[in-house]
Design goal:
Blueprint lengths: L12 E3 L4 E3 L10 H4 L3 H14 L30 H7 L8 H23 L8 H26 L20 H18 L13 H15 L9 H13 L22 E5 L37 H6 L4 H6 E2 L1 E6 L4 E6 L11 E2 L7 E2 L2 E2 L2 E3 L4 E4 L7 E5 H16 L4 H14 L10 H15 L6 H8 L3 H6 L24 H6 L10
Antiparallel strand pairs: 1-2, 3-12, 4-7, 5-6, 8-9, 10-11
Helix pairs in contact: 2-4, 2-5, 4-5, 5-6, 6-7, 7-8, 7-11, 8-11, 11-12, 11-13
Length: 515
Amino acid sequence: MNFKYFIPTASIVLLLGTGCQKLKEDPKADLTPGTYFKTQSDLDASVAAIYTELTPDYSFGFTTRMTACFGADDLTTDPGLNKQDMRAFDELNGASINPSLLNEWQGPWAAVYQANNVLANYQNVPGSTTQALQQSAGQAYFLRAFSYYYLVRIFGPIPDITTPISASDRPPRDSVSTIYATIVSDLTIAASWLPPTWSGAPGRATSGAARSLLADVYLTMAGWPLNETQYYAQAAAEADTVMNSAVYSLEPDFNTVFTTNNGSESIFALQFDVTGGNPERSYGSSSVPLDESGLDGSGGWDDYYPEINFYLNSPKCYRSYCTYYDTLKLLNTATKTYTLVPWNSPLTHAGHPYYKKFRHGLVTGGVADGVNETDSTILSINPSTNKAMDFIRYPLVLLDYAEADDMASGSPSGADYNAVNLVRARAGLPNLTPGLSQTAFRDSVVQERAWEFAGESGVRWYDIVRLQMLPQIIAARSPLENAINSSNPLATRYLAPIPIADMDNDPNWTQNAGY
C-alpha cells in the first residue's frame, strides 16, 4: 500500500448542476493540507475530490469493482476471451497477483486518504459556520465509512487509518471488529451532521444515506465474521428511521431505475460525465454479448452475466423482464438485418442470458447512451455512459428492515411483510406467503434481495458471505458454468487475498488464509 498524503487542489470542483465530480490541476497543489483550507470553497473542493477518487475505472467506474464478487450466482463471465481476472474468482480460484483485484483495493484507499486529510483540517477554515463545516466533514465521514465498508467485506482485516500518515509508515492490519467500530462511528457522525437533502446537488451524501448504510452495516455485523446478533435490532431501527423519513419511495416502474439518474429511490449514487472524461463503464458494452454488433460496427464486451440457474430460478415477472436479456440480436452483415435467437441457441458462443438492465445506460429523449436499439435492431453499442451508479437504493432499506426486524424479534411482523411486499408488488409479484417462520422469512427476504439487486455491485455476494452460503450456491450451480477449483478450502473463499504488491510493501503482514 502506498501510504501518502493526498494534496487537494484549489480548483477541484463538484459540478452540482450536472451531478459529476471532476478534478482539475491548479498551482495551489503544492500547498500542504494544513495550509490549504483558506475558504469554505477550498474545503468543498477537497470534499469533491473524495467522490472523484471513487469514480475512475480503477475504482468504481468499471466492472472490475466486482471482481472478487464473481463467486456469487448472479455473476459469471466467459470461459475464455480476456476475462481471466473475473473468471478466476468465478471459479473460486482468485490470487493476489490478479490485476483487477488491485483495482478493487486502490480506489477505496485513495478515498480514505483524501477523507483523512479533510477531517484532519476542516476545522481550520476561517469564517465558515459550524453547520457548513459539519456538512463538509459529514460527507468525508460518510465516504470514509463507505470505502472502509467495501474494503473490509472484500479483504477482511485491514489497517484502520483515520489520520494522514507518512509515505514510509507501514501500519499493521487491524481486526475486522476495529474497522467496523470506525465505520459505525463515522456513519453516526455523518447521520447527525448531514442534511436530509441537498438543493440541486445530486451525488452528495445525506443523512438518509448515512442511516441507510448504517442499517446495512449493522445487518452485516450480525452475520459472519463477527456474528454479533444483537445488531439486528439496531439495523432494523436505522432502516425504520429512513422508511419514516418520507424522503424516499420506490420508482413505480422498475425499468426507470436503470434508464434515469437520481430518482425517488436513489439514496446514494456516484455521478459520471462522459464529456468530462469521467464515464461509467459497467453499463453498455460491458454487459452486451460478444455475439452482438451495432449497425455502426460497435460490439459487445461480454464481461459479465448471470449464471444459468440463477436466471432460471428467478420468478417470471415484470422485474425479470426488465432484468434479463434472453433474446439475442445477431447481425446479418450482408442484409444489415437481425436474427433474433434465444440465449441458449447454438448460434451463441456463451449459452447464457445477459443483463438487460445494464444495457441502455442513461436514456435521454428516447435515446440510450449505452445500447441504443429497437426491438429488432441495434443502432450502436457504447462502452461509456452517463448513468449514475446507485450503491444504495430504497429497496435495500426495505429488505434490510424486513430481515433485521424478523431476526431481532424471533418472527416476522406485519411491518416486515409490508416492507418486502412493497418490493414484490413493484416487481409484479404476489405478496409473500404469510405465516412463515423466522428462518423461512429471512431466507425469503435474502432471495428477494438477490433478484431485486441481481448483478449490482456485489450485493448478492455480500449476502452469501455474511450468511456463509457458498455450499448451497455451488450445489445449485449448472454444470455448464465455469468449473469450481475444488482444491481450495471453501471456508477461505469468502475473503479475497491482499494484492501482492501491498503484501511485498508490508513484510509483517500475513496473507489471508488459503492464498
